Hints:
The chain is α+β, with helices and mostly antiparallel strands. The chain has helices at 46-54, 64-79, and strands at residues 19-22, 30-33, 83-86, 89-92. The strands form two sheets. The chain has a two-stranded antiparallel sheet with strand order 1-2. The protein has a two-stranded antiparallel sheet with strand order 3-4. It is globular, with a radius of gyration of 12 Å. The chain starts with 18 loop residues before the first strand and ends with a strand.
Amino acid sequence: MAQVIGYFEDNVVFTEGPFVICNPLGNGWRIEVELKGHHCPILPDLTIHKLKERLGMSGKTMDRSLTERVCNTLNRMARNGEIVLNGNSWVHTA
C-alpha cells in the first residue's frame, strides 16, 4: 500500500520504498521521493516523471487510487532494481 505523508512532512520514515504520496493543500495527489540527506521527500527526477506518464499519471491528480497504483509500481521497480539510487537521487535506468 502506498505510504501517505503530509505536505512538507519532515523526517519521514520510508516504510514502503522511496516513493510516497501526498495531497498538498487538498489540490490533488502527487508522488514524491526520498532524497538522501534531505529532511523531507521531494519531487522525483525527470526520468521518473516520464515513467509516471507512461503509467498513466502526469502531474497531480484528484484520483487517489491511480496515484497509489503508480506509487506502488514505482516502489516495486525500485525493489527490482529498475529504479536505482544515483548519488542521492532515485532514477529510472531504462
